Write the C-alpha cells for this entry.
Amino acid sequence: MSLRVQKFGGTSVGTPERVRRVAERIAKAYRAGHSLVVVVSAMGHTTDELIDLAHQVSKNPSHREMDMLLTAGERISMALLSMALEDCKVPAISLTGSQTGIITDPSHRRARIRRILGSRVRAALEEKKVVIVAGFQGVSENKEITTLGRGGSDTSAVALAVAVGADLCEIFTDVDGVYTADPRCVPQAKLWKKIPQDLMVELATRGAGVLHPRSVELAKQFNIPLFVKNSLKEESEGTAVVSRSDLQKGSSKASAKESRKVESERGMEEFQVAGVTADLSKILIRIELTRPTTLPSLWEAAAKNHLSVIAPFFADGKVSFFSDRDGLVEWHKNLEHLSLSGFVDSYKIEKDWVPLSIVGDRFSQDGAALAQVIEVLGRENIVPLLGTSSSLALTMAVRSDQADEGVRLLHREFLEGQKDG
Ligand code: ASP
Ligand code: MG
C-alpha cells in the first residue's frame, strides 16, 4: 500500500457538498489501505475575496498582515475537510503550515520553502490518521506566518511529498489534466496522458495555469510521480507528469508506434511542438541600464522580493523580461529607486504585452521554429515585439488582446494535423 499526497484545489472544496464529496473520495483511498496526507486550498474564491476585503480597509496593506489574512482561507477548508472525514468514520487531523513545520524564508507573499520538519505529520500517519495540511502557507525561522505566492498549494503538496517520502502526489483540480493548450481557448486541444517533467516545467512557467511552476520544478528535481486529475470525475485518469525515461516505459506498443509516426511525419530531427500557452497574468518590463554592469543590482532587487523574471532578453545595455502582474507596485518602487541611484536610465512597464509561447523540443538548433511562428502570426497581423528561445521553449511578447488568437493559430499550425482542419 502506498503513501500518497493528495491536493484538492479551491473549486474542489468550493461548497459544503463538495467538501463532503472530497471526504468520501479520501475515505475510499483510506479504506483501500493507503496512507494519506491531504493538502487543501481555500474554498472557491475565498483568497480573492480576502484580498478585496483588505483593500476595503486599507490603501496599502502590509505584506505581513496580508499573509495573516490569506492563510485563514486554507485554515477554513482544512478544518471542514477534517470534520467531514470524521463523519465518514475516518480518523483525521488538520494542521496549519506552521504546525506542519513548513519552514520558509522571510519573504512575505512569495516565500520559498527551506525545509519541512513534518514530525507531527509522521506521528499522525503512525496513528493511522489522514493528515490534512493547509496549502500555500508556512512559517519563517522567526515565527512569522508566510504565504508561498498565488497558486502555491501545489508547491506545498509536492514539497510535502518530498518531505514524507511519498510514493506519488495527486493534484485534484477542476479540469481533466494537462492539455496541449488551454481548452477554454482551444476546444480542439488534446489531453496529455503522460507529459515529460521538463516540458511541464516550461509550460507551467509560461502560463499553463494548471500547475504552480515551482511544484513541477520540485517534482522534477526529486522525481516525484505527479498526477493531475479532475476531482469531480471519479474515473478520471488525468495526466501523469513523468521523467523522460519513464515516458517510454509502460507506454503501449500502439502509442509508441503512434508517436513515432507523428515524429516521422515531421522528420525525426525537426523541432516538435508539445504545447502552446499565453499568460495574461504577466507584464512586460523593458529597461535601459546606465551601464551593462548594473544588471546585477536589478536582479538583486528582484530576488529580494522573489519577483519573477521570465524569458529575460539582454542586449546592448537593455534588458526585457516578463514578470507577474501582481508584482507591479513592487517593480515600480524598485525601478524608481534604481533610477534615482543611477543604475537605470529609463524603464517601461508594458501592461498590455504578455508572453505567448510554444513548448517542445529542438527549438534552438536553427531559426526554423521562430521563422514559422512569425509567419503564422503575421498572417493575422499579430506582430511580436520581441522573442527569446531555448531548446525547449520559444517565447514572444504579443499584445494581450491578441494572445488568445495567437494561441489558436499556433495550435492549429503545429498540433492539429492539417492546417485548415
Ligand atoms: N488559495 C491560494 C490562491 O488562491 C493558494 C492556492 O489555491 O493554491 O492563490
Ligand atoms: Mg491552482
In short: Residues 9, 151, 154 surround magnesium ion (ligand 2) (CB under 6 Å). The domain at 282-351 is CATH 3.30.2130.10 (VC0802-like).
